[in-house]
Amino acid sequence: HHPSLTRNKVGYTRRDYEGKVSTLCAGCGHDSISAAIIQACWELDIEPHRVAKLSGIGCSSKTPDYFLGASHGFNTVHGRMPSVLTGANLANRDLLYLGVSGDGDSASIGLGQFAHAMRRNVNMVYIVENNGVYGLTKGQFSATADKGSQSKKGVVNADSPVDLVGLAMQLGASFVARSFSGDKAQMVPLIKAAIGHGGAAFIDIISPCVTFNNHAGSTRSYDWVREHNEAVSRIDFISSRDEITATIAPGEVVDVEQHDGTVLRLRKLHADYDPSDRVAAMSHMHARAAEGELLTGLLYIEGEAGDLHAAQHTSARPLNSLGKADLCPGAAALD
Ligand code: SF4
């Protein structure tokens, strides 16, 4: 059997999680993210019809067409994906909601929508395919472009960037991660962890635009990101509590139990970093960013860290049949 024809526990092959053939530029980081989503959903044995994928406008927002062809999907209005997803969530709590957006969609026109989805801990996996550029309209700087980064035409960006990761942490998001489209080994466990998380799980994925942002002087080229990204944590495995047998010296790992009962074993790669301490995580991230490093991995997770037996569920919100936390406390009142 070809590996893509192996069936998972719900009887689907990896090919069943694919969608239409991508029309993006060859080499676009977004296609690697679609491949990682396919892999994560296949590995987690999620039936495609249990998934709803929503997006806004932009190259990134075209991608839900390229994965999980048999799932539900809605390509919404520019920057308004979180509102439409919130509405869908109210109508049917039993789906896994995958929101896919871009930096233009979420950091410019949809910044308010992004902020409130994070603040309200809307039940979703929120992926921003972040390249710092408006690819669809031919390469203008987006709101996440670094100050001093150079465009393909040689223009230097004078504006400060919106840091979605920092913003999400500040707004109280319960799961905040950053990854790189060139690192599938990091992306797949992060997406799986995000799916297991109850509430809003945000992953900012740096995804270079090969057409408009892959030249010297750009801080979002493949070369630059490869050179400057540094993982603060690594998810060693995700399993049920019973399957964890490894014993690792205290201080080196953080175990966090997710709402669906899976346990993330986070291996800390920075000794002074604690992904369960919001303020410490933010200051660590800012300090490293000032040194020009782009930190990746699971940057913050709300939970009891440390000893596995001390790990606890952190939210009293009711879970739906996929184990995801319910939308928000107010939602119950609308029933
Ligand atoms: Fe990807 Fe850039 Fe092409 Fe858009 S323009 S598909 S972001 S490489």
TrEMBL record:
Cross-referenced SUPFAM superfamilies: Thiamin diphosphate-binding fold (THDP-binding)
Gene Ontology annotations of biological process type: cellular respiration; small molecule metabolic process
Keyword annotations from UniProtKB, A to Z: Oxidoreductase
CDD domains assigned to the protein according to its UniProt record, in alphabetical order: TPP_OGFOR
Domain Thiamine pyrophosphate enzyme TPP-binding: 57-205
Entries under InterPro entries matching the protein: 2-oxoacid:Fd_oxidoreductase, THDP-binding, TPP_enzyme_TPP-bd
Pfam families: TPP_enzyme_C
GO MF terms, alphabetically ordered: oxidoreductase activity, acting on the aldehyde or oxo group of donors, iron-sulfur protein as acceptor; thiamine pyrophosphate binding
Superkingdom per UniProt: Bacteria
UniProt-listed Gene3D superfamilies: 3.40.50.970
PANTHER family: 2-OXOGLUTARATE OXIDOREDUCTASE SUBUNIT KORB-RELATED, BLR6744 PROTEIN
Protein name (record): 2-oxoacid:ferredoxin oxidoreductase subunit beta
